[in-house]
Amino acid sequence: MAARWLLRTLRGLCGAALFLSQLSVLSGRAGSLMTTKLSQPQSTLAKSLTSTSTNAPYFKAVESTEIPPYVIKCPSNGLCSRLPADCMTCNTNYSCIYGKPATFDCKVKPHVHCVDENNLEQENFTINMTCQFCWQLATSDYVCTNSTNCMTVSCPRQRYNATCTVRDHIHCLGNRVFPKMLYCNWTGGYKWSTALALSITLGGFGADRFYLGQWREGLGKLFSFGGLGIWTLIDVLLIGVGYVGPADGSLYI
């Protein structure tokens, strides 16, 4: 009797355990289904937001209305062929012959307005110019920086590195700003006529040398009475031909 009762008890316990295990499995599946259903709209919403922000932004970039600085140099409603070089963009004519006239196709830059000979506004036009690089232009076609650190009165003549810029209405090939070696050519304000007059009248006292900033030579002439007149005559000739100049190496006015 005890054995049968024990067997029935074990069967009951096994059945209860099996029921609990099936119940836990079913509850787990239901939870996963609910999580999937809840998360699916969120993922769809996230995708829609992502696609919207990437492909179709709500706010478009505002176009810049700032006027470029080169427009100041460009006259309004003037002839296109007479515009400064900074107001146009031209195609390089690779078939031009150096030193010969050539035609170049050009187009005005944005915000620039010009007209043709018939007073009609145009954007594309042609210009005629000599086929040569900017650094090969005549000295009157560009402006260069000056140097006050070199001697103009020296042998051989000294040069200095200058930065040159082509004038606005001159057209040429290559860079419009270029370096160039130039001879020293500047003035310190000394007049040739004044130096010569002092040499003739007061040269025996060294006034001409003092005026030119040559203090040692001036003192020498002063205490030697112009080298007894010989030094005075020589300085008159040297200043007259321009061989003796200011001590700072500049040119006479």
From TrEMBL:
Stored InterPro entries: TM2, TM2D1-3-like
Membrane-related topology note: Multi-pass membrane protein
Gene, per the UniProt record: Tm2d3
Source taxon at top rank: Eukaryota
Keyword Metal-binding: no
UniProt entry tagged with the keyword Membrane: yes
Residue ranges annotated for the TM2 domain, each copy included: 189-236
Protein name: TM2 domain-containing protein 3
Signal peptide: 1-28
Gene source species: Neodrepanis coruscans
Residue stretches spanning the membrane: 190-210, 222-244
